[in-house]
C-alpha cells in the first residue's frame, strides 16, 4: 500500500458512520477496523516495539468489540445497559486512536515536522480526554461535562481523519517512495 494513512482514514470513517437497516449497521465497524489494522504494519514500521505491540492489542480489541456490537441484539443490550459498559466497550478504540496519534507524532518529530508533531500530539490528548471523560461523567456524576466531552470526542475523531489525509504522503507516516522521487 503506497499511502497507508489513507486506509486508516477510510477505516475510521466506516467506524464513525452509523446507518442501520433491519437492525444491522450497513457500514460494519469490523470492516473499518480491518482496514486500519491492515495499514498498521506499514505505518508503524519505525515505531518502537512496545508501542507497536500496544497498538496491535488495542486495534484487535477494538475490532473484536465492534464485531460483537454489529449484532443487533448485542448492540441493543449495550444501549440499554449501564452506561459504564458502553464506555468500557469503546475504550479500546479511543485508546488505540490516542496511541496511534502519539506514535505518529513521535515519527513526525523524528522527521523534523513540528507542525504535524503538534497537531498529532494535541489530537492524542483529545482522545485521552475522551477515554477518561466517562469515568468523570458517569462515575463521578458530573453531568455538566457530558456535552463538552462529546464535543472533544467528535473533534478528536475529525482531527485524526483530517490529519491522516493531510500526512498520508509523508514517508514518516509509512508512505512508499514514488518512483519519480527515487530517481531524483
Q: Report the structural category.
A: mainly alpha
Helical stretch count?
A: 8
Radius of gyration over C-alpha positions, nearest whole angstrom:
17 Å
Query: What is the assembly state of the chains in this entry?
Result: single chain
First-to-last CA distance:
22 Å
Shape: globular
SSE topology string: HEEHHHHHHH
Order of strands, widest sheet: 1-2
Written description of the protein model:
The structure is a single chain. The chain is mainly α. The chain contains 8 helices and 2 strands. The protein has helices at 4-16, 29-43, 49-69, 72-80, 83-110, 114-139, 146-166, 179-182, and strands spanning 20-21, 24-25. A two-stranded antiparallel sheet has the order 1-2. A hairpin with a 2-residue loop joins strand 1 (20-21) and strand 2 (24-25). The mean pLDDT is 89. Keywords: Membrane, Transmembrane, Transmembrane helix. The chain crosses the membrane at residues 31-47, 54-72, 84-106, 118-142, 148-169.
Short summary:
With 184 residues, the protein is an all-alpha fold.
Task: Please write out the topology.
Blueprint: H1 4-16, E1 20-21, E2 24-25, H2 29-43, H3 49-69, H4 72-80, H5 83-110, H6 114-139, H7 146-166, H8 179-182
Antiparallel strand pairs: 1-2
Which descriptors apply to this entry?
184 residues; two-stranded antiparallel sheet
Amino acid at each position: 500500500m503506497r499511502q497507508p494513512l489513507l486506509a486508516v482514514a477510510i477505516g475510521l470513517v466506516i467506524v464513525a458512520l452509523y446507518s442501520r437497516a433491519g437492525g444491522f449497521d450497513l457500514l460494519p465497524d469490523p470492516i473499518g477496523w480491518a482496514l486500519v489494522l491492515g495499514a498498521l504494519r506499514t505505518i508503524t514500521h519505525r515505531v518502537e516495539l512496545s508501542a507497536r505491540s500496544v497498538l496491535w492489542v488495542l486495534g484487535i480489541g477494538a475490532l473484536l468489540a465492534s464485531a460483537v456490537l454489529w449484532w443487533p441484539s448485542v448492540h441493543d443490550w449495550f444501549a440499554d445497559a449501564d452506561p459504564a459498559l458502553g464506555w468500557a466497550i469503546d475504550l479500546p478504540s479511543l485508546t488505540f486512536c490516542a496511541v496511534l496519534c502519539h506514535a505518529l507524532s513521535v515519527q513526525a518529530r523524528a522527521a523534523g515536522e513540528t507542525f504535524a508533531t503538534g497537531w498529532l500530539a494535541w489530537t492524542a490528548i483529545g482522545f485521552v480526554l475522551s477515554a477518561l471523560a466517562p469515568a468523570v461523567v458517569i462515575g463521578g456524576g458530573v453531568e455538566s461535562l457530558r456535552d463538552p466531552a462529546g464535543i472533544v470526542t467528535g473533534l478528536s475523531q475529525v482531527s485524526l481523519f483530517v490529519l491522516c489525509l493531510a500526512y498520508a504522503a509523508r514517508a514518516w507516516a509509512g508512505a512508499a517512495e514514488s518512483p519519480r522521487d527515487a530517481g531524483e
